[in-house]
Structures are given as structure tokens and as C-alpha cells.
Amino acid sequence: MQFLSKHILEILLVVISAVILYDLFWPDQQTSPVSPQVQWADEAGSRIKQKLSVSAPATRDGSTNMTSAVKVAMQSQPLQMDIYQLQKPLLPDARLLDIVRLGDSFWFSSDRGLLEFNMASQQWWLRNKSSGLPGDTAYDIEPEGNLLFMTIYDWGNNGKYNYLTNARYYTFDPVTMQYHQRQESMKDIRTGGHYTTDNSDLIHNRIGDAIFHNGKVWITSYGDVHREKREFVGGGISVLDPESKQGRRYTTADGLSSDYCYDITVSDQFTGREKIWVTHFDEEKGLSLYHPETDRWQAILTSKNGIELGGVVVKTYRQYVIIGQQRGLVFYDTNSQQAFILKEKDGLPGYIVTGIHVDGDDIWISAYSYASGGKGARSSGLIRISGSSVAQMFDQKIRVSEKNPGQRAIVTKY
Questions:
Q1: pLDDT over threshold 80, residue 280
Q2: Is 6-183+251-403 CATH 3.30.70?
Q3: Is residue 131 within 8 Å of residue 73, measured between CB atoms?
Q4: Core-most of 287, 295, 385, 411, by most CB within 10 Å?
């Protein structure tokens, strides 16, 4: 791809607009200090960090050990968290963009290359072009069995700004450290096949995410930019049979909060009471919840205590829906309809949440914050949240709300 594609241009416009609006309306996020409950490993756990730095090799199969460029902290309030905060030389370029778990390691796409965090050794490794990565950056990653499927880009510059160009697809084997070029695209991997509006009932070719549920593939699409309306149109959800590629389409006419559909997840899938949740990118657009008994969707815009529930990424843990926003991390209790938002001042390593991974009772979150003017990342990192502390937090919030009753959650009928 020799020139900046229309799709990437549109994404860049959305990101730049979001940064400008964020600087205007949420300036406190740009300078919010770390919570006083945080104690960095340099100060409170130096023996652990010293042991790791002594035992870790500088390189491994071409990867560069970056453990010394990551600060580690533990925090007990408002949640029990382990915090991994990236430092120079990873910053200002290494925004953590995707989070994928394979074996004992988490893998992240970033502006600097492919980052690995090994939980067993607590070591961080960087693979970039000089160490074998077949391009400047791995900008999008997805698990495929024991391999990582990734979109590789090079950086271009037109004299005014940097942009991504020359997209191609590879698998990476974490055991052999080998890359193999592939013909399939990222959306082929996510949907488990090649779906287009020409060969299937797919509602739109611009795909956000996909899940497999009850023998069907559920695909979110976000549509095209409508210049006059200044919004995306034509998106929705497609529920298709993998064999015939035929199926059902859903839009706002079926109860969706917005036709711009991005992330999708299913909860309680082993209880017979499955719930399917969809995000629509913007906080004010809330979540959409599917009701199989009526074959309709319900928009849930805010919690009972007035927190907007929209966002970019979504996962579930027990009865909680976890929403990654562009201004923090939201936990929504489906039982009490209460929610709370975790921000940088509470220990979150950035106000833009890019990934959520639930592993048993551990909830892993990747996030970053833009530097002033959007030039690189001011902060970026990873946190592990104890699931039991989430329940304790809600118990406390529910007791407070019972003494001070608030508004009802804003939902639509279905």
C-alpha cells in the first residue's frame, strides 16, 4: 500500500479530533497525579527489581530486554492493583494498543514494535525491525491457536505528520521466533472466514470485531463517514451462518444504540443465560444488550448513578461489564445498575483504555495517555486488578447509594 488509505485517514481524523476535544473538555486528565496510595518498586520493592535486573539477559533471540524501562507498583485503594508503568526509552513512542495472552506472556502491539511481558519472569521484551520484525510496527494483533496473527505497517511521513503505510499480514511463533507472511487479512482471522457484502449478508465491509456464539458468527461493522452528518453511517451487526454466510442484520431500527458498532463480547455463556454486549466507541452512546427472547437490542446509556457506559472495548467478569473508554475504565454492575470509573488519579496508567483481558479472577488492562498536543504518549502501561476487590468496591458503593438514592439508569425499551 503506497499511499495512506481512505480507512486510515478516517481513523486518523477521528483520533486527532478526539485528542483536540479531550484537551478542551478534560484538561485535568492531562496532568492528573498518581494516587498517593501508590508506591513505586524503586522506593518500596527495590530488592525485587534488582533481582530481576541482575538475572535477566540483555537480549533473547534478537529481542531486547526492556524490564529496566518499566516501573512496578502495588496499590490497595480504590482497587487491589499491580501497576506496570512504561518509562523512557519506551516512551514517548510505545503506546500499548492491543493485548493478547499466549501461554505465560502478554503481547502488545505498539508504535515501537511488538512488546512481550512474561508474567513468570516479570520481564519485558521488545521486538522491532532491527531484531527481525518484518516492518516498523505491529499495529494490530490477534491470537490464532499458538501463534500471533498481526498486521505489519511501515511509517511514512508527508512532511506534516507520520502515517501508517504498506500493510501486510504475518503470523509470529513465540516459540521459534519466526514470522510467516499470510494472504488472509485481519478481518478474515477475526471472523473465521472471508466475509464481504458481495458474498454474504454482511451489513458493511468495515469490521470492528467478531465472536462465535451458538453456531453463528456475530460481526460488528462501523460503516462509512457521512461528511454532512459528520458521523458514521451504514454499520450494524451481522449474525451469519458460517457455511451459507447468510443470516440476520441488526441496526438502530432493532434497538441498537448506534449503527457504529465496534467491540462485542458474550457473558455467562456457560449458564444458559448468555448476554451479548456491544460498544459504539463514544461514551454517550452507551452499550447495546441483546435479548434473544425478543430478538431485539436494548440501549443502556448510563448507570443508575449517572456514569456513561459507552466505550471502545468491552469484556465481562461475573455480573460486571468492563468498558474501556477514552477517558478511563468503567465497571458496571448489572445487578445493582451502579457503576464506577477508574482514572489516572486512581492508578490507571493512561486515560485511553486499549485492551481488557479477564483471566480467572485477574483482570488485565492496557492503557495510555497522549502527550500535550497528541505528540506521542505521555504515559502507557499495564495493570492487573484483583476481581475480588471489584466486588468489595461495589459493596461499598451500594451501601453509600442506599443512603443517598440517585437517578435511574437510562435505558431504552426493547
A1: yes
A2: no
A3: no
A4: 385
Bridge partners (DSSP) listed for residue 331 = 322, 340
Chain segment 44-67, per-residue pLDDT in tens: 444 334 334 445 567 777 789 999
The burial of 386, by beta-carbon neighbours within 10 Å (0-12 exposed, 13-18 middle, 19 or more buried), is given as middle
Closest alpha carbon to 391 in 338, 346, 351, 328: 338
**Residue matched to cell numbers 490507571:** 348
The Cα–Cα gap between 286 and 71 comes to 34
Of the candidates 6, 14, 4, the one whose C-alpha atom is nearest the C-alpha of residue 260 is 14
Residues 6+ apart with CB under 8 A from 349: 83, 84, 85, 86, 367, 368, 369, 379, 380, 381, 382, 383
For residue 324, CA distances in Å to 42, 67, 100 come to 29, 26, 15
Phi and psi (nearest 5°) for 387? -60, -35
The answer to whether the beta carbons of residues 95 and 110 sit under 8 Å apart is yes
Bridge partners, 116 (sequence order): 107, 125
Quote the CA–CA distance of 99 and 106 in Å, as a whole number. 7
pTM: 0.84
DSSP H stretches of helix in 65-191: 186-191
Beta bridge partners of residue 356, listed in sequence order = 365
pLDDT digits (tens, 9 = 90+) for 94-130: 889 889 999 899 999 988 899 999 999 999 999 999 8
Instruction: Tell me whether strands 231-233 and 264-267 are parallel, antiparallel or unpaired.
Output: unpaired
DSSP H or E run through 250: strand 247-250
Query: pLDDT band at residue 304, thresholds of 50, 70 and 90?
Result: very high
The grid coordinates listed for 194 are: 472471508
